[in-house]
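note to self — DONT lose this again. spent like an hour looking for the file last time. sequence + predicted structure for the chain T wanted, 55 res
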Amino acid sequence: MCTAAVSTWLADGTSCEGSSGGDEITVSATVDIPSIVPGWNFDPIRKSATMPRDH
């Protein structure tokens, strides 16, 4: 589960999706960045990782 790789205070705003094809699997995580200063809003951050599949 990719939410385990995110700080606990961000985990509730994290979504994960995965796809596999052939010998690889890709997992993407989108993290909503909370505003800690009134008026400052940030776009969500999205990162992906592709790794070889275990057979």
